């Protein structure tokens, strides 16, 4: 049997897994991303893992899902703002030179989207938009089964489309970007602000904890949550009208065990979109959660090898 070693390289953790050519995950694990001397320590880490697995398994390739801006054709990291020393790393070349195995490298949000399309929430669908809600919003567009890359691998940045004119300042330098209203961080900040107005100091709270307060009908949590759903839906209405996708998948920690949240977005979205676009539920939660990137990395590598069995 052929096996693929997959890595999901993030700012905090490197997740890795062994998958067979049918996309069955044999095992998975994670380690802290090396912080010092990344240019040497990261390839060393990856090569060591692969070599250990080669003792017991027939490895036919390496699939990498990575944070940052990636040139997937060259397997190169174009830019990363959360891992010093990572920008410019020729990952595929370095690994190929040391292991003589085919390597694929793709951005983590794009990988996760393909993973969900292959083994997760939306199998069989070909027109999909994928979003992850977190500190910001990551997003990817798939049309006719293919990732939309744009002319310089920059397409699909839904998070930096403006939904409020002269709105909240964004890290990108503009004002009123979607992610300043619809990312998990916006929900958390709004809740803390609203509590402050009511004379209560909340130092830290997670999106999941706010969702719990919503189910307990906490009035401040409820009002902030309703605004959050509204903002998410305004952005998604633009997506629906622009691209007419079969599905929009929402990932990120906040969507785990949050069926009501996804349902509330679907309800609000249906109120917003033109009736002709209303073909049943459009928004789905991620099914693979944190593993989506590993499945997607495997899919991309198998596709590269023409070994995809679907
Ligand atoms: Zn922005």
Q: What does this 3D model show about the protein?
A:
The protein has 2 domains: 125 residues, Nucleotidyltransferase, domain 5; 163 residues, Nucleotidyltransferase, domain 5 (2-Layer Sandwich). It starts with a strand and ends in a 6-residue tail after the last helix. By secondary structure, the chain is α/β, with parallel strands linked by helices. The mean pLDDT is 94. The radius of gyration is 20 Å and the shape is globular. The structure holds zinc ion (ZN).
List the helices and strands and how they pair.
Blueprint: E1 3-9, E2 13-20, E3 25-32, H1 38-54, E4 59-66, E5 69-71, E6 76-79, H2 91-99, E7 103-107, H3 108-119, E8 128-133, E9 137-143, E10 146-147, H4 179-182, H5 184-197, H6 207-215, H7 219-243, E11 247-251, H8 259-272, E12 283-285, H9 292-304
Parallel strand pairs: 1-4, 4-7, 8-11, 11-12
Antiparallel strand pairs: 1-2, 2-3, 5-6, 8-9, 9-10
Helix pairs in contact: 1-2, 3-9, 5-7, 6-7, 7-8
The chain binds zinc ion (ZN).
Summed up:
With 310 residues, this protein is an alpha/beta fold. 38% of the residues lie in helices and 21% in strands. The strands form three sheets. A five-stranded mixed β-sheet has the order 3-2-1-4-7, sandwiched between helices.
């Amino acid at each position: 049997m052929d096996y693929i070693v997959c890595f999901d390289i993030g700012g905090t953790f490197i997740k890795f897994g062994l998958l067979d050519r049918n996309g069955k995950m044999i095992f998975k694990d994670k380690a802290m991303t090396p912080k010092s001397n990344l240019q040497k320590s990261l390839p060393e880490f990856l090569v060591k893992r692969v070599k250990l697995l080669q003792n017991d398994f027939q490895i036919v390739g390496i699939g990498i899902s990575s944070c940052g801006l990636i040139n997937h054709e060259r397997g190169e990291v174009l830019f990363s703002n959360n891992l010093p020393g990572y920008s410019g790393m020729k990952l595929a070349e370095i690994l190929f030179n040391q292991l003589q195995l085919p390597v694929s490298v793709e951005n983590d949000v794009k990988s996760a989207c393909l993973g969900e399309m292959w083994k997760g929430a939306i199998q069989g669908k070909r027109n999909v938009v994928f979003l992850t809600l977190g500190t910001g919003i990551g997003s990817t567009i798939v049309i006719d089964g293919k990732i939309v890359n744009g002319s310089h691998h920059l397409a699909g940045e839904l998070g930096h489309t403006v939904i409020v004119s002269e709105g909240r300042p964004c890290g990108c330098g503009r004002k009123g970007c979607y992610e300043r209203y619809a990312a998990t961080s916006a929900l958390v900040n709004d809740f803390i602000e609203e509590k402050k107005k009511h004379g209560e100091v909340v130092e830290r709270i997670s999106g999941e904890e706010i969702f719990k307060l919503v189910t307990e009908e906490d009035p401040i949590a409820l009002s902030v949550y309703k605004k959050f759903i509204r903002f998410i839906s305004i952005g998604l209405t633009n997506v629906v009208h622009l691209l007419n996708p079969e599905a929009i998948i929402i990932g990120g920690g906040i969507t785990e065990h949050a069926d009501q949240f996804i349902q509330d977005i679907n309800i609000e979205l249906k109120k917003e979109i033109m009736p002709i676009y209303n073909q049943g539920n459009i928004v789905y939660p991620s099914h693979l959660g944190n593993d989506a990137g590993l499945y997607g990395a495997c899919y991309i590598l198998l596709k590269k090898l023409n070994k995809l069995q679907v």
